[in-house]
Amino acid sequence: MPVEATETEVILTHPSDPLTSVKILNYGATIYSWKVGGVDQLWLSSAAKLDGSKPVRGGIPLVFPVFGKSQDEGFENLPQHGFARNSTWEFLGQTKENPPTVEFALSPDLANKDVYSKWDNGDNDFTLILTVELDKDSLKTTIEVENTDKKPWKFNWLFHSYLAINDITDTLINNLPGEYCYDQLLKETYQEKAPAITFHEEFDRIYKKVSTGKLLQVIELGKVIHNIERENLPDVVVWNPWVEKAKGMGDFEPKDGFHKMVCVEPGHVGDFITLQPGKKWSGSQIIYKGDAIKLQSV
Ligand code: BG6
Predict the structure, then answer these.
(1) Which residues does ligand 1 sit against, CB inside 6 Å?
(2) From the alpha carbon of 158, which atom of ligand 1 is closest?
(3) Is 160 a catalytic residue?
(4) Phi, psi of 255 (to 5 degrees)
């Protein structure tokens, strides 16, 4: 059966390969497993809570309406990364047979009230539609944000994707050199000078306004592990917690699991998007398999 829905989750299986599947929790509309030919493409902490008691540590949590913490008016009381990842979304059903495609929705009536009420005092009307499309060797997630209010409001969006790798010390990410980034650890903005992104310690940078024509590739020992394409998502957060930060996160297990993951997070987080009443905005992430290394200059 290509689409199976239970009380708490939806599982899509590719019609031509029973070992290619995606599992989505209604909680946070969080994709917590994506397998291609039986191989996990996303990292999931062994201590991740899948019972709706806290955002999932791993998979693809959704970040809305704020990335990180913001002191901007209307956002200052919201917890880190907003409320989309800790609200239970509504499963709308299957919209395409092949590739199997499903939709989820979130609106104020469904949102986690405790957190939603901290965004502009819970005064913003919105509809989010998440579309998940499972192809043979790719996973596409699209978010559509609609302002159903009578006034404009602003927001960030981000797909917080935890990609599975074999070892972070053998991994690089290409096509970001020359881009401007805000280093969340140094609290500084600078131009990326390294010819490729490599990892030796905690890493937390927001690459801003990266042309969506640029493909991002996660390459391990010369082999492409993941390709990430973006539509209308100009910013890319790259994050690895390394030793100390992983130790400090109760739901991050095993503690040396930082070797096995890298977050490459397409979003619109460098500034807020202002959405006028009745207007829609959308953005997509496509993660796919494919061996060809593509080097693109700035
Ligand atoms: C990343 C941020 O996107 O998410 C990091 O850049 C943050 O600063 C990380 O630590 C995890 O956030 P959280 O709220 O899931 O622990």
Answers:
(1) 80-81, 160, 184, 204, 237, 239, 265
(2) 3
(3) yes
(4) -60, -30
Nearest to residue 269, comparing CAs of 125, 106, 155, 142? Answer: 155
Cα-based distances in Å from 178 to 70, 190, 206, 228, 231 = 27, 9, 13, 18, 21
Residue among 157, 160, 249, 253 to mutate when testing ligand 1 (max atoms within 8 A of CB): 160
Nearest CA to ligand 1 atom 1: 239
Write the CA distances from 68 to 132, 160, 220, 256, 285, integer angstroms.
24, 11, 29, 24, 20
Q: Give the closest residue to 260 by CA, choosing from 245, 238, 247, 241.
A: 241
**Atom 10 (ligand 1) nearest CA:** 241
Nearest alpha-carbon partner for 87 in 59, 117, 125, 131: 117
pLDDT at 84 exceeding the cut of 90? yes
Q: 81 an active-site residue?
A: no
In terms of DSSP bridges, do strands 180-183 and 188-191 run parallel, antiparallel, or are they unpaired?
Answer: antiparallel
Topology given in CATH for the domain delimited by 3-288: Beta-galactosidase; Chain A, domain 5 (2.70.98)
Predicted pLDDT at 139: 98
* Digit-coded pLDDT (tens) for 170-222: 999 999 999 999 999 999 999 999 999 999 999 999 999 999 999 999 999 99
Strand partners, 9: 25
What pTM value is reported for the model? 0.98
Return the ∠ at Cα 17 (arms to 31 and 57), rounded to 5°. Answer: 20
> Which residue, judged by its Cα, is nearest atom 14 of ligand 1?
80
Q: Read off the DSSP letter of residue 193.
A: -
Atom of ligand 1 nearest to the CA of 249: 16
Mutate to test the pocket of ligand 1, among 115, 237, 251 (most ligand atoms within 8 A of CB): 237
Counts for the chain of helices (H) and strands (E), in that order: 2, 22
